[in-house]
Amino acid sequence: MVLLEIRQLTKSFGGLMAINKLDFHVVPGEIVSVIGPNGAGKTTFFNLLTGMFRPDDGEIWFDGHNLVGLRPNQILGFGIARTFQNVRLFPNMTVRQNIMVAQHARTKSGLLAAIFRTPAFRKEEETVRQKAEETLAFFGSRLVGYRFDQPAFVLSYANRRRLEIARAMATGARLLLLDEPTAGMNPRETTELTQLIGRLRDEKGYTIVLIEHDMKVVRGVSDRVVVLDYGQKIAEGKYNEIAQNERVLEAYLGRKGAQEYAAA
Amino acid sequence: MSQATKQAVESGLPRPEKEIVLNQTGELNLAEALKWGGLGGLAAIFIAAIGMMEAFDERVLIQPVLTLSYAGLGLIPFIFGYLTAKPPPSIEGMPPVKAGLHHLLAAGLTGILAGILLSLFVLLAQAVNLRDIFVNISPRTLDILTFEQETTLALILLIIGGGVLGLLGGLIVIIPEQWRRPVVSALTWTLLVGLLEVLFQPLLRGLNLNFVDNILFSPFGGLKQEGALVVFVVAFAIYTVMERREGIFSQRLAGMSDREKRPYLYAGIVVLVIVLGFLPIVGGVFISEVLDLVGIFLLMGLGLNIVVGYAGLLDLGYVAFFAVGAYVTAVLTSPTSPAWSPELTFWAAIPFVVLAAALAGILVGTPVLRMRGDYLAIVTLGFGEIARLLFQSEWLVPYVGGAQGILSIPNISIGSFEAQTPPQLFYPIAAFVLIAIYVSWALKDSRIGRAWMAMREDEPVAEVMGIDIVQAKLSAFIAGAVLASFGGALFAAKIGSIFPRSFDIIISIQVLVLIIIGGMSSIPGVIAGAFIVIGLPALLREFSEFQFLIYGALLIYMMLQKPEGFFPAKERMRELHGEEMLQDDWLKSREAADQETPAAAPDHNPDTG
Of A127, A168, B104, B586, which has the fewest Cβ atoms less than 10 A away? Predict the structure, then answer.
């Protein structure tokens, strides 16, 4: 069974092929890392998946639905949520509100229900609030207690990253796309986050695709690694296989560097 | 602060030691005094040259010694003296700079300098005829500036007066913390009570407190001298007590849960309703008139607050919805409406007003769905003008009367009660305002309200997080349009006749200014903003002449010093300062206690209390 299946995905910006005939798949419960040098098209790949960009060509099948041409909010409704490379929270909303608003697609109450405070509205609010607090509790003591009512902009960098992951979790998605979750974190925080990504799958049952530059993290969590370069998949496999792959070494180190590395 | 110091502050580095030494040895900061003195002098010359001195001369604050023009003039050296003496903000890890005698001297110098500049201006104006260019530099203005005295004496008075007031401004910095607030507040209240005699006097008379009126106010206008003293002493006493007690009260309030707060909330609402009920009776026609106007603008403010404050959609053509509300009401209720007059009652027309406003909201909202920021502002600005021009156009004359407008719109009536006079009209307006406040509050804390805020914060991300942008934008426009249309309906019924000219672009601007000054997305802010921006100029006629100048100055000040508004929303009020250190402390204490999920904030947390 395959959760996400991508065939011949293509996107160009002017003359630049950002993504070139990419095939990709994820099975449920898998953690897949997407790596590649800067400009390889990793983030564009996420943008295409979440509907922020529209692909020029190709198919995206998620759980039996074709996602091409859908609005981002519809795609989220099917169960794909993401985080951003340069953390994009709702800075002036409180920590709790950030998580509550993420449940928008799973809830229904409208303008009039809010004005008349119908019983259904009250019940839904309570559920949403509770789920927000539960989700935040997943991150230990960092985002709970007095943090609930603080605006997101006062959080430390690492906490912002955590909050962003929590926000993606709260959407009710099954597939999480994490765009460089450990960027800018110190080694201790990185280790902790690596464990957290494992827990996301093991305890919460999420399927995860992550873009990552830190090879320690990639080695630590991934079941499978996909390497992109110039928008094309140049290698795929377990971490150990990838680490030995000549084309991958070449993409990262250049031809000469790869030869030297192989010689050493 | 020098340039180097500023850079150091911005980069978070400790300030260079040299400057601290300078401040501690108490050297006179001449540069600061020159800067503020020069600015103060220019400010004084400016208000004289635009004719403010003359316009404000009629308003007596304290009979017979202080008119508004002298109060305004005197405030300049006072404020600039204060600014000169004020030490730079203290920086973490550095001992705060203490204000000393040299600061006081600098403040005095500032005042003297401002006085000298103004004196030079007076000399110039007397020697040369400036009136060809600056029409407002009238003989009367010069009389006021020279205190109707001989020039030499007057100039000496100006300079010495400036110096003394500058010193007093500096003194505010020097005096101990616990006296500063009572003194400043008492001074402010004294001036305010004198200024707002038109407000306080009818209220006192309406409450049958004629004896208080007799003690405070002079029959010739303004406070009596002994009245001013009474106000000052009472305000000073109240603030001194409050300074001691306030902490206790706010701490107790912070310690309460939402459930415990509820009885106080209900009690507050009951008191508010009672006060609102008696306000027009006590206040009389003039005050009710002002309140009615504030109420109508408040409805628009609350509506625009949903569109701009909550949803972040800068709508500069907001007056269009106000016009739609007014015109629908007029057409449906007026017996002389041009094409078709069903002569409904006001209340029967309201459902149609809501419907028309919602439609107008969709009509404006749909074409701008893909627009943001500046583009949206420009397009909506166009829509506002289109609406006005349509109502004015020859084409629609058979339906809405063109420039002749629609006349004889009936009053609002409930049963046999007919709201004819401003005090009577206050009740329906207040009812609508209360509904609008409730709606704003209910929407803010709801699924749709959070979606709006997310959209305001980051639209693409909001969409990726599952928010239907089309739905969110349209619902914001509809909610805002309906509230504004209520304002329009009440406006039509209040004035009794409407013309396209009443729906000028300036209304949109005023409503926007009031929510910016009050505090975006904060309901108390919008209310306060409506009173400041609409109520004050209506109470004090001489201000309305300079209304837009004051708006402009106020807006610049707000953008520089208080971008979040005077009464900001709760989540914007918190300061960044120390929050992260707070987190570390808190984490450590938690780790020590080895607890997974604590229930409440620690008690020593000052920022969230």
Answer: A127
